[in-house]
Amino acid sequence: MAKKIKRKVDVLFTTRIGNTACGSRILVNPGYFYNFLQPYGLAVMYNEELYEKINKSKQIIQDEKLIEESKKLENQYILLERQAGGTGVLYGSVNTKDITNFIKENYGLSIENKKIIMNTAIKKVGKYEILVNMGDLQIKMYVIVSVSLDDCKKLLKEIEEGEVK
Question: Helices (H), strands (E): how many in the chain?
Fold first, then answer.
């Protein structure tokens, strides 16, 4: 008795289906491709030229999103309220997790902690400059730490009016 040979079809998904992303190259059963994927325009037979074209357009879209997100954050102020002693020394410190949480809550962007670059540890009340790595872009943001949010807003207003640097 002859052994049945199972063959697969190499396809390129043109739309997202379940956990399979657009532009994915996958081996599927021929019946699944010819009876479902192809008639509904969900996938095409794999070819290198189309694969490169789809991935290039995905990269362009990702770059555009990255530039848009970086414009939202560039030169923005992060206002943090912390408890401090009479000399302005914080009880604890401000770390990258505090900054990423603020960005997520206020701007809706998820940034990894390791993407935040702080030149010095933030252990006193005041204004600090930080850098955020976003792919190939590195943007500048400012952290204002104060005992109360009212003080933060007051300091921010003075900065915007040019009274404090």
Answer: 4, 9
Residue 117, SS3 per DSSP = strand
Q: What is the pTM of this model?
A: 0.63
Strand order in the sheet with 77-81: 77-81, 137-146, 126-134, 116-118
- How far is residue 154's CA from residue 150's CA, in Å, rounded to a whole number? 6
Could you read off the pLDDT of 54-89 as tens digits, one per residue? 888 888 887 888 888 888 888 888 888 888 888 888
The mean pLDDT of the chain is 85
**CA 12-34-43 angle, 5° bins:** 20
Burial (0-12, 13-18, 19+ Cβ within 10 Å), 145 = buried
**Domains of the chain with bracketed CATH:** 9-66 (3.40.5.10), 68-160 (3.10.430.100)
Mean pLDDT over 112-123 rounds to: 88
Instruction: Give mean pLDDT, residues 22-42.
Output: 90
Structure token pair of residue 94? 């401000």
Instruction: For residue 16, give the DSSP letter.
Output: -
> Do 102 and 122 meet the contact criterion of CB atoms below 8 Å apart?
no
